[in-house]
Structure formats: C-alpha cells, structure tokens
Design a protein that fits this description.
The structure holds two protein chains of two kinds.
Chain A: E1 3-4, H1 15-25, H2 37-55, E2 64-67, H3 70-83, E3 91-95, H4 100-111, E4 115-119, H5 129-135, E5 140-144, H6 158-167, E6 171-175, E7 194-198, E8 209-213, H7 240-274, E9 280-281, E10 292-296, H8 302-308, E11 312-313, H9 319-324, H10 329-334, H11 338-342, E12 344-348, H12 355-376
Parallel strand pairs in A: 1-11, 3-4, 3-5, 5-6, 6-7
Antiparallel strand pairs in A: 2-8, 7-8, 9-10, 10-12
Helix pairs in contact in A: 1-7, 2-7, 3-4, 7-12
Chain B: H1 8-13, E1 16-17, H2 28-40, H3 49-68, E2 75-79, H4 82-91, E3 97-101, H5 106-109, E4 116-118, H6 128-136, E5 141-144, H7 158-167, E6 171-175, E7 190-194, E8 205-209, H8 235-247, H9 252-269, E9 273-274, E10 285-289, H10 295-304, E11 307-308, H11 324-328, H12 333-336, E12 339-343, H13 350-369
Parallel strand pairs in B: 1-11, 3-4, 3-5, 5-6, 6-7
Antiparallel strand pairs in B: 2-8, 7-8, 9-10, 10-12
The chains are: A alpha/beta, B alpha/beta.
Chain lengths: 377, 370
C-alpha cells in the first residue's frame, strides 16, 4: 500500500460527500431543468449547493455558475472577460506561474488579437506589486492571479492585487482551485470579480467546479445552447449528483477549515524537521498553504529519486505536465536551474494524511537521497 | 375513475416517467461503476502507480465505448457532455464554412449563430437537393446534421448526407445524443454522444472524431485527451458511461415500437396530431398536439396525474415560446404551443403507457366538454 502525498493533484472523495450524491444516481435521476416532479426532485439539491459554495467566499448564490471543473471556469473567465470587455480594454495581465489552463487560454486570446502581459514572479514565487502596478493601465480588461499555486503552494497577496486591479478599472479573476475551502476568502474584502472553484481538490467529485461571477460583470458565454446556468452564461445539462457533491464538500470545508488547516500545519512542521538531508524549499515559506511542500535535492538524479520512491505517490509538478514529461514552468519562473528542477518533489497532504504517513515518507525520501549521495561521494 | 381525479399523492407512488429524451435513469451497472471509481479517485495524469492504473482504466473505458457504439477507428475525446462536445466540433475547426440543419439542438444553433441554416421539410427531414446546391457555393464546409431529433424523434439519413458532403469535400458532424444506444451510429466524420441519455451518469459525453488532425482544443488546459480537451478527466462518470453502453441492449426497442404504434393510434383517434409521422422516427419518441390545450397546461395536469412528460427540450422548457424544431417543419405557433413530447425507455411498461393513453383521453375529453 503506497502513501498518497499528492493532494494538489486530486483528493480522496469524503465518504459523506459520496453519501450526499447517492440519491441523485438513483431515484432522483431526473433532468434538473425539466418541468415536472422528476425534474424538481433532481433540482432540489442544486439551490442548497449554490448557497454552500457561495457562502464559503462571502458571495451570494446568484454568483455561482456551475461548470465541469476549474479548467472550464478558468477558460470562461479569461476568454469570456476579454470578449465582453469594453472597447479599448484588450489586454490581460497574469503571472508566469499560473496553471496551464489560464496560460493556454491567454495564448489563445493572443492568437485572436488580444494582448497579454505575463509577469515574472520573484524568487519566492510571489508577484511583485510594483511590477503589477506598472503593468496596469486603462487598456487592461482583466487581471488573473492564482490564489494558491498548485505546484509550490504560495499565496499571492490577493487584496493588493484586487485593489490595484480596481484602481485600473480592470476585472480581477482568481483561480482558487487550490484555495477554495482551505483558506478564508472573501470576494468583497479581496475585490474579486471572478473566482474559479474545483470539486475534486476539496474532497468532492471530479467533473464539477464553478465560476463565481460578481453580479453585473460583463462575461461572454463559452458554451452555448440551452442556457441553463447563470442566465445563459453556461449551457449543458447540470449533473445533480456532482453539484450536490460539490455543495457538500463546500459545506464540510466551511465546518472543518480551522481543524483541516491546523492538521496540515502540524504535518508540514513534522515533515520539515524529518527531512534531514540537504534540500531547498521552493516558494515562500511564510506566505503559503502548508498542505504543500515543493522541495529540491541538490546533486540528486530526479528520475532515479522518483523511481526509488515507488511506495510514495508524489509528483514532480502538475499532474497534467508530468504525464506529458514536460518540465515545470513554475520552477522555471522561480529561476530554479533545470537539473535542480528535475530533482524536485511536489508533496501535498490533507485531511486523511496521518503523522505515520509523514514519518514513513520522510524516511523513504531521506534514505533514497542519502543513498544517491553515498554512491556519488 | 379517471387518472386526473386521483390524488397527487397516490399518483406519485406510481409515477410514470415519460421524459427519457431529457434524461434516463442510470443503469445499475453504471451506478456500480461510478461508485467503485469514486473510491479509487486518483488523477489519471499522475505518473505513480495509482495514477497509471487510473489512466489504464480510462483507456479501457474508451475502448469499451468505441466497441459498444461501433466507433472503432475514431478518436474518442471525453467532454463534460453533449453541449461541450458539440462546441468542440463546431469551434475547434478553423476556417470552415458551417452549415447546420434548422432542426438542430440549441447547443448547435447557438454555438454558431452565423451558420447557414439548411431547411427541413414538413416531415422534419433535411432537403437534400438544397444541401447539394448549398455545397456547390464552394468553400470547405462543415455540415451539422442531427441523427435523431430530440423533440420529434425524426431520423435523418446521415449516411447519405455524409456521402453528399464528402463528395463536395466537406466534413459532417452528427449529434447522436438521442440515437446512441438506439440505432447504429452513422459514418460521419464527427459524432457526439452524451452519457446520461443512455443510462450513464450526467456530466460526461464524447466527441468521436475521424479528422482529429484538423481539430484543436476549445477548452484549453493541461493537454489531456491527446491535447484536444483540457481538464482533469471525470473518470467515475467515464467508467459509468462505459458500463452503461456495455450493459445496454436494444431488445427493449421492439416493445417500445409496439407501444408507440398503439399509443399514437389511440391519441390520433382522440383528436391528437403526431409530428414527423411520415418520416422514420425513433421508436421511443412521440411529439403530439392536443388541440385547444396549451402544452404548459398539459404538463401541469399530467404532472398532477402522475406523469412526467415535457414540451420539448428540457433546457428550454422553462422558457416561453414555441419549439424551433416544429417551426422549422412549418408548424404554426399555435399548434406548436399545444405539443408535448412523450419519450419512453427500457423500464417503461405497457401498463404505464395504457394509463397515459387513458389520462390523455380524459384531458382531451374534458377540454371538449368545457
């Protein structure tokens, strides 16, 4: 049995979430958009889920546009905001360390004649507010900054970003796939207009997410048709089971936010004190989610390290990038040299991780690193 | 005593679901597959053992679906459903002239609002001569023709249409959301299927594409689905869809055809008008007008009497206005507003249909007496 330390890739489904979904796979199977009892029964859970998702970030239920996940939400936010922007605002400002779905959406819009400013980050992974302020102008339609980075766990200063975006008259989008349900977020206090959510990163189901949209924000739909969500913003039959699952996961996250956070912080401290072999932590140690640890081992062959850690489910970067064998664009943005970036582990832990898991994992890592260093010496 | 006088509570116990074209109940095999896969939960893009195993199950599901639906040789791209798969097909090909039948689902019509509309006849079938002429106007064409209509059940001769389009150098996209699992799928260049219409879970669908080299991703992201669709794969739903198509057989359709014939004869006898009747239609779908009673009122009365039926596409049934499908067939607005859709499936019973016929007659009778 291997130890799962890849909570940024996906999280185990909470049993109470599975339970909340079950009736919708069975007797509540109707199409939630149908005008009869089967439809109404299927739709019953959707309103509650909408309230639970919105409440977690201090929004109202009319903000919530359910999507198939954070990728769709990010596509809708970036493309939709640019397409609907007023004349003269045709630029998007974002960071080099954003998730590939944001960066790819930005590039797709560039190919269509929009312009983009992709800001570098500092060595600790945090953006420079001076750089951001310089980049902002009256031609900027959208600022898109991830709340918590999926590879290195750093938390960007969202309230400052929100304030600067607002001062420039631009919309502020944050990809909160890794932050939603884990840290307190308040859309008004942070000046957020658009916020992306994922179900399966918070012990909820795959195939569901949401874009929270400040009422009145101009946004062009990306999926057309029946117009089921957000007054026509998103088409496609909603999956009531998945929506109910996301709602339940949000409700649980609200209840458990403090204890979940205390738990991962204990595990973070334990892992760091147990990692006795020489290593470098990537990303700010202070401004971060401590359920993530991205760590490089100088002088180590990364491929061999991963091979030696067969009993440990960890990654060297974003799951989608590791599948393609690509190197991490995030570590590159931090200025981590290529050979060191390859000797890097992205670890993530959460609700189901135990101190025994952490101890065993730290032992395996230290042993594998020490062995390579002995051989090289 | 007529069904309409039975109390709503008693009727609810024996509710008859006749809205299978909106969604179908999940097959037991699909429920089991979804539940099993939700317990495993690894991300199929992760490179460690659980991730690789998940990737293996993803590819197995893809093969099972391709085999069960006769789509071997096409690249299957999983999406969040039919709407997204149609958007990928319609917006993922650059520089093509797009032609769509006037009876397409709104997910097609609204994805490409500037597309040229191909007219359909009073029977709902596409005008093939018009199509040939339109293709002569030149330009590399993408032609979208739905296999079986979601409202009327009318089946287009997509095989023949695809030949016409191919001869003119174009590509054919066929929305097979309603026909998959009921008919052999047509040899179009692109085919769209939805999970929840065939006994799988909602939240998954696919585009089967035979011209993948010309297609690029619309939903950008991590390069999943061989670069054609970004986003973590919804593996539980994909495995549920695979289990549903593998478990499905078409035996129920002969019973459905017999019930459809009986029901339509009885409704016509009671003054009803069935749309698209001369054309080949799905054995499970009947769009029928009850003269003198608005569809919205029929829906309410049938709901109280214990029947779930619809007035057309579920996504738009909350909206006022007549069906664009009937309008494309030349049906007047008044007649269209009096039409409801009755659609059946593999758990529909003879008794359920007999009770519906009785309830329909009772309502029509009450209208005449009024």
């Amino acid at each position: 049995m291997s130890i799962y330390l890849d909570y940024q890739a996906t999280t185990p489904l909470d049993p109470s979430v599975a339970k909340a979904m079950q009736p919708y796979w069975e007797e509540r199977f109707g199409n939630p958009h149908s005008e009869h009892r089967h439809g109404w029964t299927a739709a019953a859970g959707i309103d509650k889920a909408r309230r639970d998702v919105a409440a977690l970030v201090g929004a109202d239920e009319d903000w919530v546009v359910f999507t198939s996940g954070a990728t769709e939400a990010n596509n809708l936010a970036v493309k939709g905001a640019l397409e609907a922007a007023p004349d003269g605002r045709r630029r998007v400002v974002t960071l080099e360390t954003e998730h590939s779905c944001v960066l790819e959406s930005v590039r797709a819009m560039e190919a269509r004649g929009y312009s983009a400013t992709i800001l570098p980050v500092q060595a600790d992974g945090l953006l420079s507010l001076d750089d951001l302020e310089t980049a902002l102008n009256e031609d900027v339609a959208l600022v898109s900054v991830m709340a918590i980075n999926n590879e290195i766990g750093v938390m960007q200063p969202l309230s400052d970003v929100g304030r600067l975006a607002k001062a420039a008259g631009a919309l502020f989008h944050t990809d909160a796939a890794q932050a939603f349900g884990k840290v307190p977020l308040d859309v008004d206090a942070l000046g957020i207009d658009l916020l992306s959510v994922s179900g399966h990163k918070i012990y909820g189901p795959k195939g569901i997410g949401a874009l929270l949209v400040r009422p009145g924000t101009a946004l062009a739909p990306q999926l057309h048709g029946g117009g089921q969500e957000g007054g026509g913003l998103r088409s496609g039959t909603l999956a009531p089971a998945l929506v109910a699952g996301l709602g339940k996961a949000a409700e649980l996250a609200a209840e458990r936010m403090d204890s979940d956070r205390a738990h991962v912080e204990r595990l973070w401290a334990r892992m760091l004190s147990a990692l006795t072999e020489g290593h470098i932590v990537n990303g700010s140690v202070a401004e971060r989610w401590r359920g993530n640890l991205n760590v490089s081992f100088p002088g180590i062959d990364g491929a061999r390290l991963i091979a030696d850690l067969r009993r440990l489910s960890v990654s060297s970067g974003a799951a989608c990038a590791s599948a393609a064998g690509r190197r991490s664009h995030v570590l590159e943005a931090l200025g981590v040299p290529d050979n060191l970036a390859r000797a890097t582990l992205r670890m993530g832990w959460g609700r189901q991780t135990t101190t025994e898991d952490i101890d065993a994992a730290a032992d395996m890592i230290c042993e594998a690193v020490a062995e390579q260093r002995r051989m090289a010496a | 005593m007529s069904m309409l006088n039975t109390s709503a509570e008693a009727a609810a116990d024996r509710r008859v679901y006749l809205d299978w074209n909106a969604t179908a109940p999940m097959r037991a095999e699909a429920q089991a597959a979804v539940t099993r896969e939700m317990e495993r939960w690894a991300n199929p893009s992760s490179v460690y053992a659980e991730g690789r195993a998940a990737k293996g199950r993803l590819e197995d599901a893809r093969d099972e679906i391709a085999t069960a639906l006769g789509l071997i040789g096409a690249q299957l791209v999983f999406t969040s459903g039919g709407t997204e798969a149609l958007a990928l097909a319609l917006r993922g090909l650059e520089g093509m002239r797009v032609l769509v039948s006037a009876a397409e689902h709104s997910a097609v019509l609204e994805a490409v609002p500037d597309a040229e509309r191909l007219p359909v006849g009073a029977d709902g079938l596409i005008d093939e001569d018009h199509l040939r002429r339109a293709l002569r106007d030149g330009g590399s064409a993408l032609v979208a023709v739905m296999h079986a209509n979601n409202e009327t059940g009318v089946i287009q001769p997509v095989g023949r249409i695809a030949d016409i389009v191919r001869d003119a150098g174009g590509l054919t996209l066929s929305d097979c959301v309603q026909s998959a699992g009921k008919l052999p799928l047509p040899p179009a260049d692109m085919v769209v299927v939805s999970g929840h219409k065939l006994g799988g879970p909602p939240g998954v669908g696919l585009l089967a594409v035979r011209c993948a080299e010309r297609l690029s991703a619309v939903q950008k992201g991590g390069g999943q689905e061989r670069g054609l669709r970004g986003g973590t794969e919804n593996l539980p739903a994909i495995c549920g869809m695979a289990a549903a198509v593998t478990a499905a057989d078409r035996k129920w359709l002969s019973d459905a055809a017999a019930r459809q014939a009986r029901m339509e004869a009885a409704l016509i006898d009671g003054g009803g008008k069935v749309f698209g009747k001369p054309a080949p239609r799905l054995a499970n779908t009947t769009m029928v007008r009850m003269p003198g009673i608005a569809a919205s009122s029929q829906l309410m009365q049938f709901d109280l009497a214990g029947f779930s039926v619809s007035s057309g596409a579920a996504c738009s049934s909350g909206k006022v206005g007549a069906s664009h499908v009937l309008s494309a067939m030349g049906v007047g607005a008044e007649a269209a507003r009096e039409a409801i859709r009755v659609s059946t499936g593999w758990t529909t019973t003879d008794e359920g249909i007999e009770r519906f016929i009785e309830a329909w007659h009772a309502l029509a009778e009450r209208r005449r007496a009024a």
